[in-house]
Amino acid sequence: MPRTLFFLFYLLLASCEKADFYDSHGGGHFYEDLAGKWVVINYWATWCGPCHEEIPEFNRLARAYPTSLKVFGVNFEPVDPDVMEEHVKEMGITFPVYSGDPYEHFGYERPLVLPTTIVISPEGSIHSELVGPQTRDSILAIIDSSSL
Fold this sequence. Notes:
The chain is α/β, with parallel strands linked by helices. The protein is 34% helix and 21% strand. The strands form two sheets. A five-stranded mixed sheet has the order 5-4-3-6-7, with helices on one face. This is TlpA family protein disulfide reductase.
């Protein structure tokens, strides 16, 4: 019996992979799961008026293409998880928000202006860096919508 329990415990530990990054809800994500998908990364802040205007557009975009496109947010000002959750609720964000900043992984400079949206192609390269408020349609216009 002890051998069986040890074996089951070992299998359980072996199947637990550490995620590449986490969202504000503690959900783990793997960069490999993003391969072959469009990735839209939106930088926002609670004090940014245009950011408040565009969040509903990104919510709509994320809901419309849940399998072929992934929308992530990044709070421009790093904060602790409790404050982050308050900010996410205040902004009405329904898509995942990075608990960190993915700019180094994807190889772009951290934005200095808000709002900024980075679009990563399904191949993993930077497709577009958009400064200023975006809409669902403006994002779809730069992405080949036939690939969604």
